[in-house]
Amino acid sequence: DAAGRGREGVRRSCLTLQSEGFKLSQLYQCQNGDCIKHSQVCNGDTDCVSGEDEAPAECGCLSHEFQCDNVTCIDNIYRCDGTVHCVSPYGYARDEQGCETYHCPATHVKCENHICVLNYQTCDFNNDCGDGSDEKDCDYQSCL
């Protein structure tokens, strides 16, 4: 049974759980006032009603993800791809910033303009990079 929820699913406050022997350092208070064990935070299961115990603000993102802000993560394959996926109220696109020094995933190649495109998009007669660098130095076979 989860601390903060009895076997019957009854909501429990941190004060109630403290009176039952839990230390405050062992508890996490959800936004709605419910309380859960700190070990239940960032464990992959949403225990707080609004999910904040598993949110990026609390847990960060997974190793293959990029953290846009306190609530949104995107897969690293969308980072520096020339399309804004992290839109903030201030119009600032974190996923398309710092691309000069960003290392593309192994499934991608970095264009001269610092955009990452999929490996199979190189030398395919399409300007996927937008600067033509994915079509440079290609060993095209000539027709006989």
Write a short abstract of this structure.
This protein is mainly β.
Describe this structure in words.
It contains 2 helices and 6 strands, in the order αββαββββ. The protein has 144 residues and is mostly beta strands. The chain is elongated, with a radius of gyration of 23 Å. The model is unreliable at 1-9 (pLDDT under 50). The strands form 3 sheets. The protein has a two-stranded antiparallel sheet. The longest helix has 6 residues, at 14-19. Strand 5 and strand 6 (116-118) form a beta hairpin. It is 7% helix and 12% strand.
Keywords:
144 residues; two-stranded antiparallel sheet; mainly beta; single chain; disordered N terminus
- The fraction of residues in strands falls at 5-15%
Spans of at least 5 consecutive residues with low confidence? 1-9
Judged by helices, strands and strand pairing, the structural class is mainly beta
For this structure, the quaternary state is single chain
Topology summary:
Elements: H1 14-19, E1 27-29, E2 35-37, H2 56-59, E3 65-67, E4 73-75, E5 108-110, E6 116-118
Antiparallel strand pairs: 1-2, 3-4, 5-6
